[in-house]
Automatic annotation (TrEMBL):
Protein name: YqcC-like domain-containing protein
Any single biological process term in GO: single-species biofilm formation
Source organism: Saccharospirillum salsuginis
Pfam family name, one: DUF446
SUPFAM superfamilies (UniProt xref): YqcC-like
Domain (YqcC-like) ranges: 5-99
InterPro entries: UCP006257, YqcC-like_dom, YqcC-like_sf
Length: 104
């Protein structure tokens, strides 16, 4: 699991490098979304920071079972498809996390 910890740290660092990190959390209502990736209330970078990273780190810290078979990479590729941002490394990190969590 140390590899996953490292990947989560890499994901945070890459979000920061791309200036997609915020010190201000989304509203409680936005975080309560029941849609996949909270697509109705959060941007993908917000979801990665405030939902994905936090939940995975909390599960790791508690020694709980990690989710398996969930793929974030396809959504990330779609989300950034029209972007001019250099997100290649971000996509690679997300893909590596998907692999650690076990692809379906």
């Amino acid at each position: 699991m140390s590899e996953l910890w490292n990947l989560l740290d890499e994901l945070e660092a890459e979000l920061r490098r791309l200036d997609h990190w915020s010190d201000v959390p989304p509203s409680r209502e936005a975080l309560a979304s029941t849609q996949p990736f909270a697509v109705d209330t959060l941007s993908l970078p917000e979801w990665l920071q405030w939902v994905y990273l936090q939940r995975l780190r909390a599960l790791l810290e508690a020694g709980r079972e990690l989710p398996s078979g969930a793929l974030v990479k396809p959504y990330a590729e779609e989300y950034f498809a029209q972007s001019q941002e250099p997100v290649g490394e971000l996509i690679v990190i997300i893909d590596r996390i998907d692999a650690q969590l076990g692809r379906p």
